[in-house]
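Please fill in the sequence for the structure shown.

STRUCTURE ENCODING:
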């Protein structure tokens, strides 16, 4: 049975978006959100904010990753995720590759990843690592290596030593990346992305918003199987 899908129309802007290792202590004065167990989100009308007029396209496109795919693709998928989240990791391994192969690489769908760091401090640090990697054009490589090394929640796999090792593995300039981490350069961006998630009524990860060429939004909660995304993408692409 398909999950319940809620649709609403955005009031606001149209869908136009552009698109030597130092031995350092990487993390100093990072912030942390309350720890919340991650689960698949059952969709109800209460999940949709009461005032649609307050939701603009910027809530979906700001404070996130660079676009993955063709910036001119007609359909946008926005994922709110946490790198420690079990179901986010399940989506990455079970579903994302098929979406990339059949929709992103064919120019039909573009993807933005936004942080909803609800599990613990390592979630925030991992998110920061990805944004610092983006300074060297490797956000998505860092995103992928995080999920490819996922090993649970709050058990240290996303601690400072491993995050540094991941940066080394994808051949980042470690001095530059480490300085970015020490400066907590993207702290406000991560805070703002969390605020965006809350403004959309989210309480868990992963959560997805598929935005079609007519700016209608379909919300999908949880690590749903590929055929759920396929059905929604095909519906939007047929418009």
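FILLED IN BY: designer on duty
SEQUENCE:
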């Amino acid at each position: 049975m398909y999950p319940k899908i809620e649709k609403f129309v955005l009031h606001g802007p149209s869908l136009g978006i552009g698109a030597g290792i130092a031995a350092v202590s990487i993390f100093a004065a990072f912030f942390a959100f309350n720890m919340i167990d991650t689960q698949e989100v059952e969709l109800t009308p209460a999940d949709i904010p009461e005032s649609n007029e307050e939701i603009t396209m910027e809530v979906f496109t700001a404070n996130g990753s660079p676009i993955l795919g063709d910036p001119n693709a007609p359909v946008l998928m926005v994922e709110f995720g946490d790198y420690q989240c079990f179901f986010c990791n399940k989506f990455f391994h079970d579903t994302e590759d098929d979406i990339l192969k059949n929709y992103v690489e064919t120019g039909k769908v573009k993807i933005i990843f936004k942080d909803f760091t609800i599990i613990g401090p390592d979630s925030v640090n991992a998110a920061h690592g990805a944004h610092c990697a983006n300074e060297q054009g490797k956000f998505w490589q860092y995103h992928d290596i995080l999920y490819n090394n996922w090993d649970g929640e709050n058990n240290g796999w996303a601690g400072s030593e491993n995050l540094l090792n991941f940066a080394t593995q994808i051949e980042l300039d470690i001095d530059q990346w480490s300085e970015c981490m020490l400066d907590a350069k993207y702290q406000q961006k991560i805070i703002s992305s969390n605020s965006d998630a809350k403004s959309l009524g989210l309480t868990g990860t992963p959560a997805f918003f598929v935005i079609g060429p007519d700016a209608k939004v379909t919300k999908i909660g949880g690590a749903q199987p590929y055929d759920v995304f396929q059905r929604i993408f095909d519906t939007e692409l047929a418009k």
